[in-house]
Amino acid sequence: MDLGISGKRALVCAASKGLGYACAEALAQAGAHLVIVARNEAPLRAAAEQLRSLGPATVEAVAADITTGEGRASALAAAARLPGGGAVEFDILVTNAGGPPAGDFRDWDDAIWHQALNANMLTPIALMRETLDGMMSRGWGRICNITSTAVKAPSPYLGLSNGARSGLTGFVAGLARQVAGSGVTINNLLPGTFDTDRLRSNLAAAAGQAEMALDAYTAKRLDAIPARRFGRADEFGAACAFLCSQQAAYFTAQNLLIDGGAYPGTL
Ligand code: NAP
């Protein structure tokens, strides 16, 4: 299916690996020009090379920490290096950052909470603030925030994620409706359990907390997923590209859960 976004300019955050990379890949396959961001230069460069090999899209790699003002400024400035770009002119924004650590609420002091809120709530809000007016003035834009299944069903060990991402979700629920008449959509993508580096480190931490062997704990987690497997990142990327498509123009303010049926609710 032609998604109608060939030549659009996309900023995909935290995109050298995992879900962010998969979103970048699906957007590149749809013909979008990309700025991708991650902190570590070598994997980021490798990711950019891989994306360039997929087709004619221009891919700019920005090695930066997206949770800092300076990092965001470098990422936004890179729009000018894309075909047809100018300062801060993205048509598509995919927000993402590393998730906060698992743990016990007793161990989280104010500094740890501020870090989680900054990465998983305030950073996406700052990026939307910087890009939305341009999208609205051009009458077209797509914003996808990578959040988590934790906003539908909290995870006992990921309280920082449950809290910070729910704050973002509440903010987006209002903002998306405020800008819906301007041709800009804002949606959240909620990953269930996807096979990425992040999942592997979370599984190890959770197995330790549950005092179980990793294999046994992983099998228990798989048992709780009706699809009987973890998600593949490319499946997530395809959903992101669809939400960024022309065809998805009437989807806004939605929270799309992709979890192999794990969430047990009817809605
Ligand atoms: P991942 O495989 O660990 O990949 C994380 C990516 O983000 C890497 O490219 C990493 O590169 C980049 N990154 C991390 N912090 C960054 C920062 N401050 N600035 C710029 N780039 C940064 O993780 P993932 O599984 O794709 O997860 C992505 C997000 O989805 C996380 O917030 C995670 O909590 C959430 N999530 C994942 C799952 C799952 O099952 N995988 C489920 C629910 C929620 P560098 O380290 O080089 O910066």
Automatic annotation (TrEMBL):
| InterPro entries registered for this protein in UniProt | NAD(P)-bd_dom_sf (IPR036291), SDR (IPR050259), SDR_fam (IPR002347)
Which domain of life does the UniProt lineage start with? Answer: Bacteria
UniProt similarity note = Belongs to the short-chain dehydrogenases/reductases (SDR) family.
Know the name of this protein?
SDR family oxidoreductase
**Which species does this protein come from?**
Achromobacter veterisilvae
Q: What is the lineage of its organism?
A: Bacteria, Pseudomonadati, Pseudomonadota, Betaproteobacteria, Burkholderiales
